[in-house]
């Protein structure tokens, strides 16, 4: 966090802010990279927050016609993190990363096995996010790579895309959680 955090009037909020929320509040005074990282981390935390505190059966429960479940979402997002930051940005082999299919043509990333427990999925997602942070840490936002279907893209594009992707699924997770136990919001 920056030293501008001390200027946050936390009494203006209905509850104490988490560190991630403080980063969002102060992002208005931050540089571009810190802003992108803060917003992506906020959405990552939202997904984990919506999956926290539910039972294994509720995490796997399908409440919509698609494969979307809280557990499946964590598995999917871990794969998406590795696909963009590790495979595309760093050039690591998909098989080495456990991605043996093409997104979005085939999408078994939502399919759960018996080993996919909620704690294991949360830990794997957190690990994937940490790997993403490490992959991007020393690279400029202008760092480019070629995505075969789209063309030349930048690390900046990955950040924006991952904010969009993760935020969309955080919204899905909020609705699913509300269907499970009536809890809403992060």
From TrEMBL:
List every stretch annotated Disordered: 1-23
Q: Give the matching InterPro entries.
A: DinB/YfiT-like (IPR034660), MST-like (IPR007061)
Classify the source by domain of life: Bacteria
Question: Can you name this protein?
Answer: DinB family protein
Organism encoding this protein = Nocardiopsis rhodophaea
Upper lineage ranks? Bacteria, Bacillati, Actinomycetota, Actinomycetes, Streptosporangiales
């Amino acid at each position: 966090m920056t030293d501008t955090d001390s200027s946050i009037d936390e009494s203006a909020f209905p509850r104490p802010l988490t560190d991630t929320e403080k980063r969002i509040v102060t992002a208005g005074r931050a540089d571009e990279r810190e802003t992108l990282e803060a917003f992506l981390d906020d959405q990552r935390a939202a997904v984990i927050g919506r999956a926290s505190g539910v039972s294994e059966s509720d995490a796997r429960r399908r409440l919509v016609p698609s494969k979307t479940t809280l557990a499946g979402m964590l598995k999917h997002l871990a794969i998406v993190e590795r696909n963009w930051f590790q495979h595309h940005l760093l050039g690591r082999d998909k098989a080495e990363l456990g991605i043996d299919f093409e997104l979005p043509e085939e999408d078994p990333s939502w399919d759960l096995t018996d080993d996919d427990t909620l704690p294991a999925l949360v830990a794997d997602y957190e690990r994937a996010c940490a790997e993403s942070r490490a992959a991007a840490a020393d690279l400029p936002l202008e760092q480019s790579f070629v995505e075969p279907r789209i063309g030349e893209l930048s690390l900046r594009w990955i950040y924006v895309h991952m904010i969009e992707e993760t935020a969309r699924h955080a919204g899905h997770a909020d609705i699913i959680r509300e269907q499970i136990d009536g809890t809403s919001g992060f």
